[in-house]
Amino acid sequence: MQDFLIYDAKVAVLIVVFYMFYRLLLSRETFHRVNRVVLLLTAVASFVLPLCVITLHKTVALEVTPTVSVGDLQMEIAEETKPEVWQIVLPLIFIIGVVAMLGHTLASILKVILLIRRSERHPQPDGTILCVTGNAEVPPFSWMRYIVMNRSDYEANDAAILAHERGHIRLRHSLDVVLVDLLTALQWFNPAMWMLRQDLRAIHEYEADGKVLSQGINARQYQYLLITKAASIGFTEVAHARPFEQVRWISLNRNIGGYSIANGINHSTLKNRITMMLHTKSSSRSYCKLLALLPIVGITLALNARTVTDYVYQQPQKKIIKKGKKSATVKMGSQQVTVVEQPKAEKTTKPVEVIQAKEVFTPVEQMPEFFDVVEQMPEYPGGSMAMFEYLSKNIHYPKDAEEQQLQGRVIATFVVMKDGSISNAKVVKSVSPSLDEEALRCINGMPNWTPGRQNGKVVNVKYTIPINFRLDKAKEAPKAKINGVAAKDVISRQEPR
């Protein structure tokens, strides 16, 4: 949960930056569709960009090829640490806020659906459905393809109101509202998200107003109509006043009867809408302001980038001596070595005896390419502790080794294949044949590992593991030590086989 809260904090910072860009550069421009797209895309990009991590690879050449060993790992019992108070309180407050916002949005949607179902519906030729409700307090609003009006507004049949609501439907503003409300639920604590939400609804009104005026409706009469509907007063009381004088004393920010998910005729600040209608159309040069988004996105990706170091191990160059008829002298360091051509062996007709091998062992040189060190090393299922437990339960002290008092450290290597299987297990440091055989038996019996990865691809990885076999001086049961820790003392007692 803490990782998600950190991610959400990054999202909040990006929303603030993008919204400041919109308010400073674009909020006064008249290309409303572009502004609408900018607000939607920047809101979505704020949630996506923190997940975009650019990986830069740095190659480092090493002269020696190391082997990976778990011999230095120590088995420790970690004490459980209690989480801090803020680690409990903050996630709880965040979840409560998200649930409350989602509940409010869902309740608003259900309220609109119930109102539509209880209304008298009249399908229109353009595909919209006109819903007439008997509640006189419900102002005109639209949601999806439905236009909701009370009885008096329906009988008035005002062309401007219908054109306004049809504009919302044709431009699919309801989808924008639902999307932004869902994003606001995850950013309920961020004031910039709430202001972005309010400005997007204002742009919806600007676009719907533009649809009304494009049909030839008188702009001054339409402005008077907006004021009348917003203030719920008679048209005759404001007909002789100027729009800005009326706006000063009329409350214009009322909700649409509690239907916050819908688009209504009085959702945004009326003064700004009238100002936008009278505003001079923005020039095409204003579009150049959008280029300011590029450095914002670039800086965000740069801050979120990470560098991965790729180690390349240089193998020592082999001395290549070409065959020839004459002897050759090769200088190696301070010495000179004379190489004489050996006579070719005579061909023999002796038949070759074919022997059926009991076990098939693929030499490492003939295996598919494997790595010694990768970005994500292979892991035993359940981790190191599970591997220690497996070895302690499955390793049994050989009887002959116990009788001969043989003990020591067996070091074995194996390759974890791409499918997680164990291959080419062999002993690189031997103690005795019986102890070596017991170590290899347990290693070959391991379940499939989680394979290693390099540059995001599954690869073969070589692994090294030391196992200590030790006999107690007090003639107790023999012990097999893993990584220097007695398995008996750590996990469970194992009886000799």
Which tags fit this structure?
5-stranded mixed sheet, 497 residues, alpha+beta
Description:
The strands form four sheets. Strands 10, 11, 12, 13, 14, 15 and 16 form a seven-stranded mixed sheet that branches. A five-stranded mixed sheet has the order 2-3-5-4-6, sandwiched between helices. Strands 1-7 form a two-stranded parallel sheet. A hairpin with a 5-residue loop joins strand 11 and strand 12 (422-429). With 497 residues, it is of the alpha+beta class. Residues 64-80, 233-255, 318-362 and 483-497 have low confidence and may be disordered. 25% of the residues are buried. It has helices at 2-25, 32-48, 85-118, 151-156, 159-170, 173-186, 191-213, 219-231, 243-247, 270-278, 293-303, 384-394, 399-403, 433-444, 487-490, and strands at residues 55-62, 120-123, 129-133, 141-143, 146-150, 263-264, 306-313, 328-332, 335-339, 370-371, 408-416, 422-429, 452-454, 457-470, 479-482, 485-486. The protein is elongated. 40% of the residues lie in helices and 18% in strands. Helix 1 crosses helix 7 and helix 5 packs across helix 7 (191-213).
Can you count the beta strands?
A: 16
From the N-terminal CA to the C-terminal CA, the straight-line distance is: 48 Å
Largest sheet: 7 strands, mixed
Which outline best applies? elongated
Helix coverage percent = 40-55%
Mean pLDDT: 77
- The value of Rg in angstroms is 39 Å
The secondary-structure class comes to alpha+beta
User: Which stretches are low in confidence, meaning pLDDT under 50 for 5 or more residues running?
Assistant: 64-80, 233-255, 318-362, 483-497
Helical element count? 15
Q: What share of residues are in beta strands?
A: 15-25%
